[in-house]
Amino acid sequence: MASPANPTGTILTRDELAVLSGAIKARNGHLVVDEIYHGLTYGTDAASVLEVDDDAFVLNSFSKYFGMTGWRLGWLVAPPEAVGELEKLAQNLYISAPSMAQHAALACFTPQTLEILEQRRAEFGRRRDFLLPALRELGFGIAVEPEGAFYLYADISAFGGDAFAFCRHFLETEHVAFTPGLDFGRYQAGHHVRFAYTQNLDRLQEAVERIARGLRSWQG
Questions:
Q1: 121: domain CATH number?
Q2: Transmembrane residues, as ranges (predicted)?
Q3: In the predicted model, is pLDDT for residue 220 greater than 80?
Q4: Are the CB atoms for 139 and 158 separated by under 8 Å?
């Protein structure tokens, strides 16, 4: 599981995580939760699965909230009985994270850096608050307001056609890039696309104008 999720931005509550954990334990399974977007939430905090399940596996990274994409630095929290086997796996895959990246990551926890990161989170919130109603006004169906991450998952059924062809049309005619739903699973993927609000507000506004123009030439 992922919480906050990519591509919807939805968050599992503490109670939902507890129910999920109980259901998986009842089936002798293992719960793995991707918490890479923790910190990038809006108006709420994301609960960690470790609050309700000491046996869960948790994946996280410096790539998203801390903005260190490309440094390839992350961590895994695992139950003690799994650590030995995970160490064997790590030794055969990458041995250890680069020391330079580890030293750079220490700067993430200074008060000055945390202040910048919180300003960045607020900016993501402003971008979401602009793009969500703008796309809905154009006719995109967005069922949920993202609580975290920086994506909108939109239904294009109102426009007809296939999501892959839809994305290609806008890339080739309007030079606006978004992602077909097929990248995120199979359920209704053919008529969903994902938008990322990782650009500044001026560029997002220009993108909306181009999308509006591109819809007029789209022949689904």
A1: 3.90.1150.10
A2: none
A3: no
A4: yes
